[in-house]
Amino acid sequence: MNRQAQAVVLLLLGGAVVRASLTDLYLRYVKESLQPFLVAAGLALVAVAVMTLWYELRPLLPASVQPPDGEPAGPVAHADAGHAHHEPRIGWLLLLPVLGLLLVAPPALGSYAVSQAGATVPSGGLSDYPALPAGDPAKITVLDYASRALFDAGESIGDRRVQLTGFIATGGAGEPILARMVLSCCAADGRPVKLGLTGEVPVGLPQDTWIEVIGRYTDRIGRDPVNDAEIPYLDVETWREVPVPRQQYD
Description:
By secondary structure, this protein is an alpha/beta fold. It has helices at 3-21, 35-57, 95-103, 111-116, 142-151, and strands spanning 138-139, 161-170, 176-182, 191-199, 210-223, 230-241.
């Protein structure tokens, strides 16, 4: 692969990054706060590719746009310029991930990732959890509920009803659980937060179905068969299917 081809690949890659960054597609890979950095990186790749193409193609331009006399018109010709240099064709395989990013949008991490990774609940180092949001039910995240249930023993929840949104996954015994993926930076470090369900447990739903549940705290604790971590439970009162949210990660 010569430098011109490399520049084309770089241009496609930069364009794909910019395209993903200016739509909701980037949210499948990184946290929302990283969007400005992705846009900047994509534009930088495009700029480098354009400059490389200009440098490589200048000798082929008409004389009217050639550099003034005394300035180099491009790469210095070698004495053996008449001999073809064959570049390794395997370099063209670099186009595959670029085309994949342009043409195929992989889904966000879901139930399969939940089944392969052990549950995690970052405590955030809180000793006293703030009061739940106003309203009945109180709208909180799956991560917030799990953290309060495990590290605060539900004290900050009390007997209030809470509303959570997550997707259906399968627990160790084949039962449906509520899950949400948590990112520190990007999808590569995504870890699942898992909640066991009691009461009006959703049944008959395919994995990765997004639902909204309303329920109350229960002190029941399970164990994750993947890493033996504690899994808190939620006593479900009602639930309903909801569309896939724009931001699928906590």
